[in-house]
Amino acid sequence: MSSAAPPPAPEEEDGSSSEEEEVKKEVRKEHYSSTHKILLIGEGDLSFSLCLARAFGSARNIVATTLDTHQELAKKYSNAIENLIELQQRGCVVVCGVDATTMSHHFFLTTQRFHRIIYNFPHVGFSFPEDNRCQITLNKELVKGFLKNAKVLLKKENGEIHVTHKVGEPYDKWDLEKEGKKIGLALYKSMPFFKNKYPGYSQKRAHGNSSDEPFNLGESRTFMFKPSG
């Protein structure tokens, strides 16, 4: 009797080959690819991350972060925990309690580097009316802190930072391009943002008693930065 192990069954070989092909296959969703390592910041109810994960068929290439703790997510958003669970089931790393202005020092993120770092509709919350000079300054400080930290976390090859926010007054006074230049980032492209291209995404107010309510997007664009040096 021979002690040699039998060869693998043909169906097992075919299944393995098919699996490898699936892993190699690239799926794109607008500016983003399943081959990118993606970091999302300030994710609210995590619906944008989940939109990408569903499009890709997997979230193994995604790290999604929120400023809120797990408990705050459950309290503020009706779908956040459900979204979080699905993301984790799809292989996403979800990290709560991440501040966009200090994230490069976060114990987990400091060891990571990303092809795309995304912050959709950054906002500090309302201390003053939207067009008040102090409110504009606070939002500019948030964006500047984010860009500075995101630059540290970018992969050296083909890394991009994307900020989506409203355009027109008073949002143009945030001076995104100017703030980027100060820290060695060049705005190389800006594209109109259309929510309907991201099925399931729900923009949230995030602050106050109406945190789970959507806000009016108006005209919005995605501003794309690359290191200038």
Query: How helical, in percent, are the residues?
Result: 25-40%
CATH superfamily annotation: Vaccinia Virus protein VP39
CATH class annotation: Alpha Beta
Cα distance spanning the termini: 68 Å
Strand content: 15-25%
**Alpha-beta classification:** alpha/beta
String of helices and strands: HEEEHEHHEEHEHEE
Backbone CA Rg: 20 Å
- Architecture per CATH nomenclature, i.e. the level-2 architecture: 3-Layer(aba) Sandwich
Overall pLDDT level:
89
So what's the overall shape? globular
Please list the strands of the largest sheet in the order they lie side by side.
Answer: 5-4-3-6-7-9-8
Main beta sheet, described? 7 strands, mixed
The fold-level CATH name is Rossmann fold
Query: Runs with pLDDT <50, length 5+?
Result: 1-22
- Number of separate structural domains: 1
The strand count comes to 9
Q: Give the helix tally.
A: 6
